[in-house]
Specification:
This protein has about 375 residues and is an all-alpha fold. The chain is built from 19 helices and no strands. Helix 7 packs antiparallel against helix 8. The longest helix has 28 residues, at about 290-315. The termini are far apart.
Amino acid sequence: MALHSTSELRVLTLRLVRAVCMGLGMAGVGVVGHAQVQIPLVQVLAEAETHRSARRYAEVAALLDRVLARVAQGERLPEGVDRDRLHLAAATAHVRTGGFTRASALAKGVVSATKVKLLQSEARFVWGLALALDQKFAEAVPVFGDLALDPNHRDRAWLYQGIAAREAGLTEVAIAAYERLLAQAPQDGDWADAALALVSLQLQRGQLAEVERGLVRLRDRPEAVDNVVGLALLTLQAGDAALTAEDAIAALAAYQSVPSRVELVRLHEERDRRLETQIAGLRALSGAGAADSDAVRRLELRRAQAKQALAELNVGALEGGDCCRSVTAGNDVVRREFLKKDVCEMVGVNLLPLRSLFLRLEYAVSYTH
């Protein structure tokens, strides 16, 4: 690798410092060269910035680790480069390349070492994120709980704490985190994700009154919901739960609120295009840090979940053909005595598969109108 002039190295180093100070994180750093060649740290850091700009994150992680090892042996960092920020930049690079254990250790060290509140919160987020991505969800829960004490990170911390607690099986903690988020956060895509997750947890616990309130909350903010088919399937599940509880009125209300299959597909395609645009926009941020990087991951996950829900909708729509004909044949009876057990048995309809029947008929509840 050719050596740069002192002035060029100075400019590159200043660029690096500015990038780190703005919280953009750093990508990979290229191979240093032969072991016997001690390249000045200022040049290694400058190369790191070059790789970061090119999004070669594995190189950044490797070279920053070498820089940190040399500093640990007593070598001084170049003027203007903050040691804690350098550790955080290395942690961010490792998160982006799947080195979660290394990232967690580096970020945890910054949390303990720094006195700068903003930097401490950024490091705490990277620490919790690395733990969660490493599937150490129970360990991540208190980290995000501490992060929520910072008002600038509060909403994000509650969202991630809810996700981690849910994965760890800490249902009460997850519900509390989601409820705090929903009470105060802007009603955006993250808010809708939290609301859907909360409804799912409450449905598992049989809290049908809370489920109904949660579904109404989501239906009142339809533009915030990206996974519209997932919302429809949750609503159908709520109707099934009401049937099991022999609450025909609540079941009917749930089923009636589900759009037709044609409309659901249209809404899904519209939201999918919106997600694709959001993902492309975030990816275009060349210096994105851990938060922006993980925002892309979560948007991609949300998009995948929506497609999975659509696949489930398509499967459900093909089920129960014989029962569909039975419902049609018993139309007059069902109109008068909708969902009563004896009537359903009369026309040959099993109560529990009704969610697929409604999808199959595209709006079977219109029989009651």
